[in-house]
Amino acid sequence: MIALRIGFLLATPTCKEGASRPKWTWVYAQFFMKILFFCMTIFLLFSQVYAEWQDRLGPAKQVNLNEILRHPETWMNVPVEIPVRFAWLSDVYIPFRTHFSQDRFVNFAAWDIQEPIWEQQGFNNPHFYFYVEKDNPELKSFLKLQTFDTVCLLGKIEGMFAGKPFIRIVWCCRLPGSLDEIKLKAIRTSLTLYRQRRFDEALNIFEQILTSKPPQDIESMLRKGIAQVYMNERNSFEYAFVELKKAEEATPQDPEVQSLLLECTQKLGQRANVLLEAWQDGLLKDARIPANENNATITLPTDIDPNTGLPFGQQPVSTQPVPTSIPESTSVIIE
Fold it and tell me: How many other CB atoms are there within 10 angstroms of residue 244's CB atom?
């Protein structure tokens, strides 16, 4: 309905009385309406795939791939939503032991979202047994995926062979953030420095990675690392609070984030309520800790004395110039 109204408005421009209607306007309106109808059709078709799946099998349960691999029998024929990192299209079929054959399905591999793929061992550990039917309306979306894309998959286990679950996927949704080989190398380097307690170097690379908009789980991991340095090494709990709130925004269900936030707020005491209010007002989004400073605190607008423009309790520094010559009235006795 919205598309029809927009198309109608474009197709009926305001013209002066007696003026002929421009031909190009009709052409543009028809083209615009076709585009809208196409997008709406695709959206409704993909939504229908997801809706029909849930109507037939019930709501999908959110679960990590590693949990499925640990207890595949528990998840047999259960609709699940699985966050993964796409690896590549593959060619793994066992038609005589499963119903996944090459003529009906496209096979691909993916990593569990928590797999440290920046390490060689993690990179070499994808799950190879994901399958999408070739007549699935979502197939084009799968074929457009790039290695390291973070996606949410909707599917269920429909076969087992040699202890490995074979998972049929019916729908996918690309999640925010991007990852590539350059970022993975930077993550590996920074985490190595972090383990060596070379925190200044590690946090500098962390900030560069965060600027490049990584996936939300990676963002949360890095911000937790920054916060722990602020808490345990620099005694700067206010800046740790800011990093943990950003991590919470990225991964609201992460129990480690909640645990660290609880520890941080306990250390801050009543100041935590002030910072929380400032966070909710959007005053802390750009807070940056001063370089190489310990016991750093955040100065909020409510901390400023309106009479002096300085934090409450801080005395203004005298700006009286220092004499550079001896006044004429001063007598100098030279012995």
Answer: 29
Phi, psi of 329 (to 5 degrees): -75, -10
Structure tokens that stand for 77 in this block: 């024929």
Q: What is the pTM of this model?
A: 0.75
| For range 9-18, the mean pLDDT | 44
Q: Provide mean pLDDT across the span 231-252.
A: 96
Q: Within 13 A of 34's CA, how many CA atoms are on the CB side?
A: 6
Query: Residue range 138-162: average pLDDT?
Result: 93
pLDDT value of position 59: 83
**Domain coordinates of the chain in residue numbers?**
2-13+21-57, 61-174, 181-303
Could you tell me the CATH superfamily of domain 61-174? Nucleic acid-binding proteins (2.40.50.140)
pLDDT confidence tier of residue 307, bands split at 50, 70 and 90: low
Classify domain 181-303 by CATH number. 1.25.40
Please state the length of the chain: 335
Apex CA 101: angle with CA 95 and CA 104, to 5°? 160
Q: How far out from the chain centre does Cα 271 lie?
A: 28
Q: Which of 132, 133, 129 is nearest to 165 (CA)?
A: 129
Judge whether 229 and 199 are in contact, CB under 8 Å: yes
